[in-house]
Design a protein that fits this description.
This protein is an alpha+beta fold. The protein has eight helices and 18 strands.
Length: 327
């Protein structure tokens, strides 16, 4: 049910604007006096304000990551179902929550808004650049493209991308191609490779030819086809035996090989809005198989049917994998 259904949309918009204004100018006495005057001049203003307050309190009870993703999901749904105004209300609500929870920090939403190319949760996107380079962006990815006369650079801000380098036919010098993260740079040697920015390190997986890694503090490393390496600002090291196929996502899959449940759930959560967590008591259960990413609800059903676990739903967007109780 729409909490604003019987209210004048203009009054709801005013209430949202006041909420944002008060957060941005906390303690400003002139703003507080003007807000009080607006709120008390009409009973409908007071009702609109109370609805906004109620929405904010309900959202504040959720973890910030869940709150932002739920609002974004609802905004997207309402954009198609109830028009731009309702979507705008929820999007502004997300801004309110985000301003309170992430003040002074880079957020996925801000990175997505500022990036040259980006994907949301559960999305994939294919991009072909002017030099013929093909990019396939995985879920929750933000990248910038920095092409200049002397070189080509794809900057991975967050997430994961498969890069197939183009031949750069219009450049007489065939400019070198580099991928970068805040951990270092990767120089392509005419190749296809995966770059994943994950927390405090970057993972490189070379699918064809070779890529040179350089973090500025260690000796450069040349990774050959089939190799996977991790890179941080302090070190470069070869990855061990993979618990899952790092390229399977390009086909819309997770291909797990004796993958601990906690790792599997964390990987699946990248493709699902909200929070998906694993209880520590089942964290080490091994998961093997091929699972679809397009429908995470269906993937959870398969997981529950093949493993001794159950799903605790606090909301549709807040799920914890727990031990299955004996029948």
């Amino acid at each position: 049910m729409n909490a604003f259904a019987h209210l004048d949309p203009k009054l709801v918009d005013q209430a949202i604007a006041w909420s944002v204004r008060l957060r941005l100018h906390a303690g400003d006495q002139k703003q507080l006096q003007a807000f009080h005057a607006w709120r008390t001049t009409d009973a409908r203003h007071e009702e609109a304000w109370r609805r906004i307050e109620s929405m904010q309190q309900a959202i504040a009870a959720l973890p910030p990551q869940l709150a932002g993703q739920v609002l974004a999901a609802r905004a997207a749904q309402n954009a198609g179902r109830a028009g731009r105004r309702n979507a705008l209300k929820l999007a502004l609500g997300a801004v309110i929550v985000g301003a309170a929870a992430y003040a002074g920090r880079d957020t996925p939403w801000m990175e997505e808004a500022m990036a040259d190319y980006a994907t949301g949760v559960g999305q994939r996107r294919q991009v072909v650049l002017d030099d013929g380079t093909e990019l396939l962006l995985n879920t929750g990815t933000a990248i910038n493209v920095r092409y200049a006369a002397q070189q080509r650079v794809v900057e991975v801000r967050r997430g994961e991308v498969m890069i197939t380098t183009g031949r750069d036919p219009s450049s007489p010098t065939h400019r070198p191609f580099l991928a970068s993260t805040d951990d270092g740079v990767m120089l392509a040697k005419g190749t296809r490779f995966l770059v994943r920015k994950d927390g405090e390190h970057t993972r490189l997986t070379v699918l064809e030819h070779a890529v040179e890694l350089n973090n500025g503090s260690s000796a450069p490393v040349l990774a050959q086809a089939g190799d996977s390496y991790f890179m941080s600002r302090a070190a470069i090291w070869k990855a061990g035996v993979a618990e899952f196929d790092p390229s399977a996502w390009t086909e819309g899959l997770i291909a797990a090989r004796e993958m601990p449940m906690a790792r599997f759930v964390a990987e699946l959560s990248r493709y699902r809005p909200g929070l998906l967590r694993c209880d520590p008591s089942v964290a080490d259960l091994p998961v093997s198989g091929i699972f679809q990413l397009a429908d995470t609800d269906r993937t959870l059903e398969v997981l529950l049917a093949t493993q001794p676990v159950a799903a605790l739903y606090r909301t549709r967007w807040w799920v914890t994998i727990i031990p299955r109780r004996p029948e």
